[in-house]
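hey so i finally got around to running the thing on that chain from the lab meeting. sorry it took forever, my laptop kept dying and i had to restart like 3 times. anyway pasting the input first so we r on the same page abt which one it is
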Amino acid sequence: QVQLIESGGGSAQAGESLSLSCTTDTDTFTDHAMGWLRQAPGKGREFVAVITRSGKNVYYADSVKGRFTISRDNAKSTVNLQMNNLEPEDTGVYYCAADLRVITFTQSDTHAMQYWGKGTRVTVSS
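ok and heres what got predicted. didnt touch it at all, straight out
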């Protein structure tokens, strides 16, 4: 019954920026940590960023730290991912996800993840 709806994917050149958004229902949003995992061609899904229910704590993969920013917009039940200084290695399908535990995200425990969006594609060219 729970749906996570992503938007904002597209193409960019290296050094440019993109912003992703993920919207769900208010109950799911308030009760879960929200975050993003991505899947590059031929690879498994890997952790990108997560934000706690309160928004007081955020965690990033080392590969995106300092370039990406995750945030929650409580009024819109939306989690955003601002991606700056994009690199070709950022290319992949980005999946919004929701779970009760932050470690589900940081450990890339895809089987334990409670809810998934359908994904939005990001392509970064050099």
